[in-house]
Design goal:
This protein is of the alpha/beta class. It has eleven helices and 14 strands. Mean pLDDT is 93; it is low at 347-353.
């Protein structure tokens, strides 16, 4: 097959492209002109065609989709210098452009796989995320936050509507928080997601909304002595944090299944992982592993959930392989410069691309 991957320079797109090449496919990556320098990391792979273009430009999109057999639409506005109108233009109209170009020029398309997000499950105005029961595909929030959460959902709705109305063979994958092992450790070799200083930096300067919040913030600020530690984070009610991450290698597995399994067509799936971090269990373990102390504190926001993966496992045969131990061990191997099979397209820190 000849497969278009929008967003092919990202950590998911890069790893997916290499996997598709290994399965004998040809890959065309649509790359935003501002990301052209990062495209060099894929240009060296035989079988990859890199084309520059903007999702907002219908001519660019038409040129990108022409002649392909399948499309992975991963590209989106996220975390950049965009306002609400730009987010909607890129994530909404950009998806319309792909769908309309498919209708006009690719009548025999075999699959369109859309990358959605777990964020569509979170409710507008909610302080954090908390769910005592595993989250299913049916639990989409009625009120979604602008701009990213809502505009990604708009893209999913467009894909599903074009499937039902025009027969576009679309499916949507709602990614849990993706973790790429090469980004797990910061430049000091510590797991940045579990450090005290980012929490103090994020919440320490907040103005309390209630006496309870004021007490939480006062306790958090008092823990910072200038020396980095790990943080066993708790929800405002004292419940230890729990969050499900998905290793980029498992994301690639799920995306490949979305292409290969006919049962994917017309369906939405939560693409979660095996890396369920339980702060009460894993922070002490990480502190011992990396030889640092940890402290225990409540934060103003809740973070306690995992997903029900019954649908994607049952219909597509998906089985995530990379649990917490696998993520950590792979991160350490990557830090030592050892080969792991992970295509590293991001930066080593704890930020995001």
């Amino acid at each position: 097959m000849k497969i278009l991957v929008t967003g092919g320079t990202g950590r998911i797109g890069g790893n997916l492209s290499v996997e598709l090449l290994g399965r004998g496919h040809e890959v065309r990556c649509l790359v935003y002109p501002g990301d052209a320098s990062r495209a060099d990391k894929l240009a060296g792979y035989e079988g990859v065609e890199v084309v520059e273009g903007d999702l907002r430009d219908f001519d660019d999109v038409t040129r990108a989709v022409r002649g392909v057999d399948a499309i992975y639409h991963l590209a989106a506005a996220f975390g950049g210098p965009f306002d609400n109108r730009q987010y909607l233009n890129i994530n909404g109209m950009g998806t319309v452009n792909i769908l309309e170009a498919v209708r006009a020029d690719v009548p025999n398309l075999q699959r369109l796989v859309y990358a959605c997000t777990e964020a569509i499950y979170w409710r507008l105005g909610e302080k954090g995320r908390f769910s005592e029961e595993p989250i299913t595909e049916a639990m989409v929030s009625q009120y979604k936050q602008m701009p990213y959460f809502l505009t990604k959902w708009v893209g999913e709705e467009l894909c599903m509507t074009y499937h039902r109305q025009y027969g576009v063979p679309a499916t949507s994958m709602r990614f849990a928080t993706v973790i790429e092992p090469g980004e797990f450790l910061n430049v000091d070799g510590l797991p940045w997601r579990f450090l005290l200083s980012p929490a103090v930096e994020r919440f320490g300067g907040e103005t309390a909304e209630s006496p309870e919040d004021e007490e939480i913030l006062r306790e958090l600020r008092s823990l910072w002595t200038g020396e980095e530690k790990l943080l066993l984070s708790r929800c405002p009610d004292g419940t230890p944090y729990k969050q499900e991450f998905v290793d980029v290698r498992d994301v690639v597995q799920g995306l490949v299944l979305a292409l290969e399994q006919d049962a994917a067509v017309g369906e939405e799936f939560t693409l979660g992982g095996a890396a369920v971090f339980r702060w009460e269990e894993h922070v002490p373990w990480l502190a011992e592993r990396y030889g640092v102390e940890f402290v225990d504190a409540r934060l103003p926001e809740s973070n306690f959930f995992e997903f029900d993966l019954g649908k994607i496992k049952g219909l597509l045969g998906y089985e995530p392989r990379h649990d917490v131990g696998s993520v950590v061990e792979t991160a350490e191997r990557m830090a030592r410069g050892e080969e792991t099979g992970v295509v590293r397209t991001g930066v080593r820190y704890g930020g995001r691309e």
